[in-house]
Automatic annotation (TrEMBL):
The lineage of its organism: Bacteria, Bacillati, Actinomycetota, Actinomycetes, Mycobacteriales. GO terms for molecular function: oxidoreductase activity, acting on the CH-OH group of donors, NAD or NADP as acceptor. Belongs to the short-chain dehydrogenases/reductases (SDR) family. It comes from Gordonia jinhuaensis. This is 3-oxoacyl-ACP reductase. It comes from the Bacteria. Residues 14-190 form the Ketoreductase domain.
Length: 251
C-alpha cells in the first residue's frame, strides 16, 4: 500500500463520484469521502432535486444530476470529470432501487428496471469512463451490492439477482482494472436504516435484526466507512473482495 501523504486526509487531491448521493447510504458515503479530503461529485436522478444540492453543499462538492440507467450515462460522466478535473479517481456505484414482488407477480417492468439501475448501470458507468480513459491510475471502483446478492431473498428475485450480478462484475473487472492499477471491491450491506428499508413492514425488519449475529441492523455510516477504506490508498493492494457490513453473520 502507498501510505497517504496526510493520514487525516488520505483522499486529498482525489476526485470521487458517488451515485445515489441525494440521501441514505449514498449521502453518508459522500460525507465520509469529503471528510477524508476528496472532492465529491454527488450524482442522483434529476427528480432528487433539492436533496442532491443539499448533500453537495454539505460536503463542499459538486451536484451532478444523472440517471445512471440512461444509456449515455457513462459517456456523460466521463465528459464531465475530464472537463472539470482532468479525470476521476474514485467511483462509488451506490444508486439502487427495489421493486419487490413474490415471483408469481414479478412482471417484466419490475425485473428490468431493477436490473437496469442496480446491475447494468454500474458496468456502463465504468465502461464509459474506461472508453475515454477517464479513470486515473491508483483509483478505486466500489460497488454497493447487498446481503440479498449473496443469500437471495423471497420477494426480491430481481433485486437479489442484480446484487449477485454486481459480485460477478467485481470478480471480472478486477483483472481489467488491475492492468491499470485500479482496484474494484464491493460492500454487501445487511439491513441498514434508510428510506429504502423504511418501506419494509416492522415485523420483517425485526426478524432480520434478530437473525444477525450481532442482533442489530446497521447505520449508513457503517457502510460509508467500509467504502472509504476501499477508496483509501492504504487499501491499494486489495481488490476483488466483497465485504459484508452490519453483523448479518447468519450467512
Ligand atoms: P435510498 O432509496 O435511500 O437511496 C437511493 C438513492 O439512489 C436515492 O437518492 C435515489 O434517488 C437514487 N437513485 C435511484 N435510481 C437512480 C438512478 N437511476 N440514477 C441515479 N440515482 C438513482 O436507498 P439506500 O438504502 O440508501 O440504498 C443505497 C444502496 O445500498 C442501494 O444500492 C441499495 O440497494 C443498497 N443496499 C441498501 C440496504 C439497506 O438496508 N438500506 C441493504 C443492502 C444494500
Amino acid at each position: 500500500a502507498a501510505a497517504p501523504a496526510d493520514w487525516d486526509t488520505p483522499l486529498a487531491g482525489k476526485v470521487a463520484v458517488v451515485t445515489g448521493a441525494a440521501r441514505g447510504i449514498g449521502a453518508t458515503i459522500a460525507e465520509v469521502l469529503a471528510r477524508d479530503g476528496a472532492h465529491v461529485i454527488c450524482a442522483d436522478i434529476p427528480a432528487a432535486g433539492e436533496a442532491l444540492s443539499e448533500t453537495a453543499n454539505k460536503v463542499g462538492g459538486t451536484s451532478f444530476p444523472l440517471d445512471v440507467s440512461a444509456p449515455d450515462a457513462g459517456a456523460k460522466l466521463a465528459d464531465f470529470v475530464l472537463e472539470r478535473h482532468g479525470g476521476l479517481d474514485i467511483i462509488v456505484n451506490n444508486a439502487g432501487i427495489t421493486r419487490d414482488k413474490l415471483l408469481a407477480n414479478m412482471d417484466d417492468g419490475k425485473w428490468n428496471s431493477v436490473i437496469s439501475v442496480n446491475l447494468i448501470a454500474p458496468q456502463q458507468l465504468v465502461n464509459g469512463l474506461l472508453a475515454k480513459d477517464a479513470l486515473r491510475e491508483g483509483g478505486a471502483v466500489i460497488d454497493v451490492s447487498s446481503i440479498a446478492g449473496i443469500a437471495g431473498n423471497r420477494g426480491q428475485t430481481n433485486y437479489a439477482t442484480s446484487k449477485a450480478g454486481v459480485i460477478g462484475l467485481v470478480d471480472t473487472y478486477k483483472s481489467i482494472l488491475g492492468e491499470k492499477g485500479i482496484t474494484i471491491n464491493a460492500v454487501a450491506p445487511g439491513f441498514i436504516e434508510t428510506k429504502m428499508t423504511a418501506a419494509i413492514p416492522l415485523a420483517t425488519r425485526e426478524a432480520g435484526r434478530l437473525m444477525s449475529s450481532l442482533q442489530q441492523g446497521g447505520q449508513t455510516v457503517d457502510v460509508a466507512e467500509t467504502v472509504a477504506y476501499f477508496a483509501n490508498p492504504a487499501s491499494s493492494a486489495i481488490t476483488g473482495n466483497v465485504v459484508r457490513v452490519c453483523g448479518q453473520g447468519f450467512l
